[in-house]
Amino acid sequence: xxxxxxxxxxxxxxxxxxxxxxxxxxxxxxxxxxxxxxxxxxxxxxxxxxxxxxxxxxxxxxxxxxxxxxxxxxxxxxxxxxxxxxxxxxxxxxxxxxxxxxxxxxxxxxxxxxxxxxxxxxxxxxxxxxxxxxxxxxxxxxxxxxxxxxxxxxxxxxxxxxxxxxxxxxxxxxxxxxxxxxxxxxxxxxxxxxxxxxxxxxxxxxxxxxxxxxxxxxxxxxxxxxxxxxxxxxxxxxxxxxxxxxxxxxxxxxxxxxxxxxxxxxxxxxxxxxxxxxxxxxxxxxxxxxxxxxxxxxxxxxxxxxxxxxxxxxxxxxxxxxxxxxxxxxxxxxxxxxxxxxxxxxxxxxxxxxxxxxxxxxxxxxxxxxxxxxxxxxxxxxxxxxxxxxxxxxxxxxxxxxxxxxxxxxxxxxxx
Length: 416
Prior knowledge:
- InterPro entries: ARM-like, ARM-type_fold, Armadillo.
- This is Armadillo repeat-containing protein 6.
- Keywords: Repeat.
- The chain has 25 helices and two strands.
- The protein is mainly alpha-helical.
- The chain starts with 8 loop residues before the first strand and ends in an 8-residue tail after the last helix.
- The chain has helices at residues 13-25, 31-44, 62-70, 81-96, 103-109, 112-122, 129-142, 146-154, 157-167, 172-186, 190-198, 201-211, 218-227, 239-248, 251-265, 268-281, 285-293, 296-306, 311-325, 329-338, 340-350, 355-369, 373-381, 384-394, 399-408; strands at residues 9-10, 47-48.
C-alpha cells in the first residue's frame, strides 16, 4: 500500500513576494517572467497558492487596499478621507470582480469581510451614502461561500447591515446594495437567516414592500427568495417564521399589490418571487381564505395572461392554485371559475417541452379535480386528458404526477 500523501504545502505572502524579487534581482528576469516562474515552480512542488496575491511586489493589490482601509481611525469616517475611501473601495471591487483572479479568496483570507463590516459600522449614512453603497458592493462580492458568511456573522455584520437599511429605508441605493448583501449572507446559512429574523428583517421587508411598491428594489426580492429557501440543516429553517410574520402584518395585501405591479411593469423576477412567497403564505387555511377574499385568484390569472410567454412565471402561478385548492372543493371551484383550467391547458400545449411546468400543471389539475365532480367534467371536456398523457409519455419526472391527475379525474385507465 502506498504511504499516505503528505499535507498540502503552503507559503506565506512574504515568502512568495521574496521569491519573485529574487528572480528579478538575482536572475535578471523581467517582472512578468519572474512572477510566472515563481508560480510555476511552486505549483510543481505542490504548494497551495490559493489566497496568495499573484502580482509583482510593489504593484497595487487587493491586500494593499485592505491594509489602507484597516488603517482608518476607529472613529466615524468623515471629512477629507471620504474621497480616498471611495477610491479604495472602487479599486477593491474592480480587483475582486476579475474572473479567475483569485482576489476574492485573497481578500477573504486576509480579513476582507471583517474589515469592510467594521468600516460599514463607522459610516454615517446621512453624509456618506455613496461610501456605504460601495462598501455593501464590496461585501456582496466577498461573501461568496460559507466561510465568508460565517465571518460576516461573527463580526456583527447582520446588526450593522439591518441598522443601515432601517436608516436608509427611503434611499434606493442603500436598499438595493444592502439587500444584495442580505441575499449573499443568508445563502446556505440558516444561522445567518435566524440572526436576520432576530433583528426583525421581516418587519423591514414589509415596510420596504409598502413604501417601494413598484418593484424598484430588485435585490429585495432576491433576499426574500433566499430567506424562504431552507438549505442548511444546522437549525430549524426560518421561512415559516417569516411567512407567519408577513401574514399577520398585512403582508398578503402587499404581496398581491406587488404581483399586480410586476404584471404592469413586465418584471418577471418580481412576479416569480412574489408568487413563491404567496404560495408559502397560502399554506394555512386562514391565509387561503384571505387570498381568495382579496380576489387573489383573479389577479393571478391576470398575471399569467401578462406573462403568457414565460413558463417560469406560469409554473409559479400554478403552484399557488395547487396550494389554494388542496383539500378545498370550494376553492377548487373558484379556481376553475377564475380560469385555472384554461391556464393549465394552454400552458401545457404551449410549453410541452418544459418538464417542471408540465409537472406543476398535473399537480394543480389533480387538486382541482379530486373532490369536485363538476371540475372533472369541465376539464375532460376541454381536452385535458390528452395533455396529461403526453406529459407522462414525454417526461419521466411527470409520470407520478400525471398518473395521479388522471386517476383523480376519474379515469379507469389512468395507469395505462
